[in-house]
Hints:
Elements: H1 2-27, E1 33-34, H2 37-44, E2 49-53, E3 59-67, E4 71-78, E5 84-93, E6 98-107, E7 114-123, E8 129-135, E9 138-142, E10 153-155, E11 158-167, E12 178-179, E13 184-186, E14 188-194
Antiparallel strand pairs: 1-14, 2-9, 3-8, 3-11, 4-7, 4-14, 5-6, 5-8, 9-13, 10-11, 11-12
Amino acid sequence: MKALKTILTLLLITVSTVSCSSDDDKDAVKYNEENPLDAYMAGSGFSQKAVDVKNSGIYEYGFSFKPTVTGKINSLIVKIPDVNPTLRVTLWDAATKTVIKSETINVATANVTVEKAISPIALTKDKEYFFTVNSDDWINRTKTDGSAATYPIVAGNITITGYAYISSTAAETIFPTNARNTYYAGDVTFKFQQTE
């Protein structure tokens, strides 16, 4: 009987240890960061042709998207063909057309990719957001034949739902309403990381 109690005690300790280590493994899952821009350009065909546009009127422009998983934006990434020490990048709630967060990025050198780490912004699975920049400079990306892209475009855990712009001023943050599917003006993007 004493041997049976000892075996049962050891079995219980073993099961508890396996159970705890299983929980620890679950908590230790760390997802890689994703930048959806390259997959968006490839999926749309807008990676085929790029033309720098400088000092061409100020616009608020960018893309709408839905994360397919719960996650967060950890950093913002821009590349424009001119210097701009106060380039404003904004994340919007697409349904309410309200600003969630705006950040200023110092682009000290033209045509150089700049990444700015930010306090993480939580994103909800399947909720639509809009990611824009306010600038008079951009890289105009199109297909070689000028044809339209078909949305949505899957870019990892981000689904791009469209592109739009609106005329603006440097002081204004206006939600873009002029949708286009024959080009993308950029380059603006972010690093997304799944959290669940």
